[in-house]
Amino acid sequence: MSFRDTLWALLVVVLWAFNFIVIKTGLDEFPPLLFSCLRFVAAAVPAVLLVGRGGIPWRVILGVGLTLGAGMFSFLTLGMAHGVPPGLASLLMQFQALITPILALAVLGDQPSSWQKAGIGVAVAGIVLIGWELSASASVLGMLLVLGGAASWAMANIQIKQAGNIDAFRLIIWMSLVPPVPLALLSLFFETGQAEALRGLTFTGVAAVLYTGLASTVLAFGIWSRLIRKHSPTVVAPFSLLVPVFGMAFAALLLGEDFGPYRLTAAALVFFGVFLAVLGPRLSPLLQKTRPARPLTTKP
What we know:
Blueprint: H1 3-27, H2 32-44, H3 47-50, H4 58-81, H5 86-93, H6 96-108, H7 114-134, H8 140-163, H9 168-175, H10 180-190, H11 194-199, H12 203-230, H13 233-236, H14 243-255, H15 261-290
Keywords: Membrane, Transmembrane, Transmembrane helix
Main location: membrane
Membrane topology: Multi-pass membrane protein
């Protein structure tokens, strides 16, 4: 993975980490399913009028729209609405980095390298440590819902890889047409307060919808999908493990969430795990060069 693509992946990490703060703000303005619906309306309109489909098959648009759109984001917002704080939500969503390589091995036959296995193992240990320290403050149902979002994200990663040579930016825009309909119907039957939220629309609510729709969905997932298509999902997925680290930092700075030794230790584990998974394969040749050569021996 090139240095340039690494920087793109880090930009996605920052956009997604801040997105959890924005979601918490948006949930104060809208019911969760309605908020998710509006997010994709903002992502799709008027972009679909300006950006052509580019020959992307409708089956790909529908499949990714249901898993990445309706599945992932509805589970995430519902989980946060059930009491999962932004820091823990950003953490639980990154279990997709563990699920993705498993699905990639089962579906695509992608074998993770030893470096990637070690890095994912270290990073997952950090995630488990954070989850153990934070879990007492969140409901079990909320945590299970967010984990459902992580599984949906992993499925979408595999679908995007299977789609082959397609324009990721166009895919994200056009797949955003799919979620509004099922999310609107689910909101209609299972939520209340939609009319009041829309009548009392505030600047904060509009800003939350635009950020989640344009920055976090179109821009961030457009970049992410391009990276998934260009590289193996096993290589790209570990970057998402950095999201809870940045997410906790944003939560501490903007929401006053407290840091403790467990979270700092876990964050260090996540950073080191991503370092191993992403940069480990590049270090192997360097380690081979720096290793002292064995002295030649001659038989007596």
